[in-house]
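Notes for week 9. Today we move from apo structures to complexes. The key idea is that a small molecule is not decoration. When we ask for a structure prediction with zinc ion present, the ligand SMILES becomes part of the input, just like the chain. The input block below holds both the sequence and the ligand string. Read it once before you look at the output, and try to guess where the molecule might sit.
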Amino acid sequence: MPSQLHCLNSACGAVYAIGEVIYTCPKCGALLEAADRDLKLDPDAAKRTWRERRMSNAPLDQSGVWRYRELLGFFDEREHCVVTLREGNTPVLDAPKAAAYAGLDALTFKHQGFNPTGSFKDNGMTAGATVAMRLGMRRVACVSTGNTSASMAAYAAAAGMTPIIFLPHGNISHGKLAQALEYGALTLQIEANFDQILALVRVLAEKTGIYLLNSVNPFRIEGQKTIMVEMLDQRDWRVPDWVVVPGGNLGNVSAFGKGLRELHALGLIDRLPRLAVVQAARSAPFYDYFHNAERAAFVSVEQPETLATAIRIGDPVSWPKAIHEVETSGGVVEKATEQEIADAKAVVGQCGIGCEPASAATLAGLKKLRAAGIVAADADVVAVLTGNVLKDPDYIFKYHTGALKTPWGEGIAANFGNQPVVLPNDAERIAAFIGERTGARN
Ligand SMILES: *Cc1c(COP(=O)(O)O)cnc(C)c1O
Ligand SMILES: [Zn+2]
């Protein structure tokens, strides 16, 4: 149980108590990780316990995060009051059409869009909100125009804390912002850009004692690592060859890598899957870094662009963790264009599954990794769909009607488009049209 906050800068190596309100190392500024480095458990007993909890009606057991609480070393059942909306419990789905599209024999999606607010941010937010309550916080804040604010607003509201959301003025995506408003978040539009607001909010947090639930928060990462634990539990601990995930701030891939390494060290799995991260082509600083032979410095992208707004990040905070996880797993980093992402998304839809644009980067990237021979046709692949199809209906409508354009004004072809059809009120003509289009008779 004695988790601590470890500074990840090996030259510093400072260690802090779990109850300290810090987000990065106060000595050197590096990222922190919450870890119990002495944890031991009996693999078979743990697997049995976790399976049995699926039959339980206790809130902790019903959560797809807290069910695996033995791995959440910061958590003490006697002290913490868990904030849960029964997050996790997301399905693994076979998708033969998507597999064929990528040139694979088979493909499984782990769909985090089935979460309470429709994205994997809930897996992390249940942990972040629980720690905030334990620390006695009344107000929590984040800077985000997307899924983080939707998720934080919901968990704060559920716990009786006040959610405060900071947005760059005039840069709002209405679908996700609507959720935050509905969950009652105090929503502040600041006349500054994303990075300036981030700096501002850190000052405000220090001044006012508001707790920050931004993506550097180490407890969110702990919650998100259970996505891999649940996935393996659902596969009876059969380790896939590859886990594919979109990359924005790179918190998710960092969480996956940490979770998988811990499972391996504890003897619950006998090897690590390789991690493949896919970025949007014009928001791909991690791709550039990974493929730069020297890797001297991490160069951020000044003006990141992509319609997949969840991965429109030019300066990803978790890159030092992410590069470690990708390298340790023998992984790769790929990038996909707007057209590739849009088409892949439509194919995920044709599987009856659907996802938001950022999630479809996984399938788009897989297709390229397969074509390059990096992923074998018979590889066992799990791609993580990060967000729900309903997050971005505007994008969908525009794609299918041929009206989707890149942020820099290029048209995106509706290669898998599906236009609505207007017909007169005439049964015969409608029947004839349906026959013509579907060819089926019954
Ligand atoms: C946040 C988010 C991402 C990016 O995840 P990172 O941890 O920032 O790399 C991808 N897809 C969706 C739907 C998201 O909400
Ligand atoms: Zn440090």
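The longest strand covers residues 162-168.
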